[in-house]
Structure formats: C-alpha cells, structure tokens
Amino acid sequence: LYLYVGLNQPYQVVTFGNRFFTPSTLGLIFVVFYGAELLGAWAVARVVGDATRSARKRATRGYWQFLVTTTAGYGIALAMEASHDGGAAATIDSGRATFGNVFFGGLAMLLWGFSDSVVQALSYWQMKIWFPEGRESSRAVGFYKLVSSAGWCAGFALAPFNHALIVFGGVEGLDLLLAELGDEEGHRVGGL
Fold it and tell me: What is the pTM of this model?
C-alpha cells in the first residue's frame, strides 16, 4: 500500500494526463484532481473520526472508499486507453469532438484525487494507531515516506520518456540519502 501511494501518480498525472489533455486543459484538470484531494480528506476524516465504531470498522469503511474510487478511476482510464487512437491530446477549446475525453478523463482524475487523499490519510491514521508516539512513530512515518518516494521514482522510471535519466537520478539520490543518513552509531553508509 505504501508503495502504491507513490507509484500511482506518475501514470495519472504524466502519462494519462499528457496523453488525453493539452497543457492548458491539464492545468484545469489538476484543479479538479487537487480539489478532490480536499474532498477525500474531509470524507475520510469523517470516517476515521467516528468514535461510535471500532477502529477495525473505521479502517474497513475507509479502505472501501479508497478501493471503490480508485478502481472506478482506473476503469474509466482503461476504457479510454483501449479506445485511444494515438492522436492528439483532448482539449475543451479545440473544437474537436473531444468533450467526452475531457469529461471522462476529468472524472477519472477526480476519482484518483479523492482516493489518493483517502489512502494517504488512512495510512497516517493507521500508523498513529500502531505507533502512537516516540521514535517508533517517527520511524514509521519516515519509512512510509521512503517507500512512497521509491514508488514515485519507480512510477516515473516506467513513464514513457527518458527512462535512463530518471533511473540514474534515482540511484544518485538514493546514494546521497544513504550517505547522509548513516547507521545507528552515526557512521556513514553511502558512497557508491
């Protein structure tokens, strides 16, 4: 799950976004995506904040929200990808018959934005339950961010443009991170 949080967005915002929208339309679609992030955060806060239910029931309801919305977004994307002819990106102002692409693509982005904030909020909420305080809590959040960022790197490496540069940059970044982190006694461990 932690890897998914990072791995999904490069496809959503780069591959899918650039395939089906022109830059100006994609800018508007990002307003939809990040607006839905706000709605998703509000919705999941209501679920996990419901003290009348057990933590297990709250988690189940929250993960169902995530599963349904992300699956619906990918279902729409799959249908759009299957019918994509490789032509120009869709735009509302082009005068071409692309309103369907903009509408359904925007709906997929709305669902992905909603589900992204739901799964991130659920991840932090669950970490707080499992690791309520202290060093373990810090390590859990750090591990989450590390794996999520690794997912971003992998997602961009899989995106259809200049793979070698991205992979090289990721390896160099990991090496610098390891060099700065050191081990438990403070010894440096990086330096490939």
Answer: 0.74
Q: What's the chain's length in residues? A: 192
pLDDT tier at 35, thresholds 50, 70, 90: very high
Mean pLDDT of 63-89: 84
Name the token pair of 147: 């794996």
Three-state SS sequence of the chain: CHHHHHHHHHHHHHHHHHHHECHHHHHHHHHHHHHHHHHHHHHHHHHHCCCCCCHHHHHHHHHHHHHHHHHHHHHHHHHHHHHCCCCCCECHHHCCCCHHHHHHHHHHHHHHHHHHHHHHHHHHHHHHHHCCCHHHHHHHHHHHHHHHHHHHHHHHHHCCCCHHHHHHHHHHHHHHHHHHHCCCCCCCCCCC
Percent of the chain at pLDDT above 90?
28
